[in-house]
Amino acid sequence: MDNLFSLLPVTIYPLLPKNVKELRMRVGLPLSVYDGKKKAFVFDGEKPYIVTSSDVDYVLGKASGYSLYSVTDNLVDGFVSFAGGIRIGVSGEGVSAGDKVFNLKYPTSLVIRVPTEIKGKADEVAKKVIKNGEFKNLLVIAPPSGGKTTLLREIARLVSNDGFNVCVIDERREIAGAVKGVSGLDLGKSVDVITGVKKLKAYECAIRSMNPDVVVTDEIYGAEEVDAVLDAMRAGVKVAASLHATGVSDLKNTVYEKLQRAMDITVVLTKKNRVGEIKEIIGC
Question: pTM above 0.85?
Fold first, then answer.
């Protein structure tokens, strides 16, 4: 929580509950918070706190080291990262030509997501993916904010501590929470992190340069990223990856179906009763 508080204006952080998983800031609208169980507006006395453009500018200033130009590429992709694995989703008025976005001119909405480290979270899954000294290819499926990253982070830690050379491809800096390339979260003793690099290039670098036993990556999106994962598997590298869906049936007749079929084990998470609850394990 210290990283979150250091990111926020002094008008906001004293109003927050102790446990914050997600904070939504929308200019001109009430500040809202999610504590892992329920969503609620944040009150300042008897009235909801109304987010101002100055609040949004403050957060982006802190996250960028007061140089938005230095994070333009991230803004174009819709996010900025902060210490401790905090990711800030950003939307607003952009500057574009055709399909290419050049900048975000007026940011008006932020979604601040705080990572969760839960030691022991992946113990049940780890027993199934590590068998006889071998790691089995793993796909984690869950809806947005369904616990995918938390589970993958813990898998990386356990596998790394079990003697496997693990390479974490962390394009959006959520798994490792890296600052200046150094992981801010516990990923174990035998881990290398590639952060802030597009997945396609990162997979190429990892396989050619780092000689990993296992590659861990979050939120596969689109045919090119699916093919990058399959290419890594064909090269003999084991993979743990995730994607957004509510279940395997959602993948039918999509580019993701062949990815799921190629995996040894698929874990489906739900947030119906609690975030990250295991709904189903397929292939064990």
Answer: no
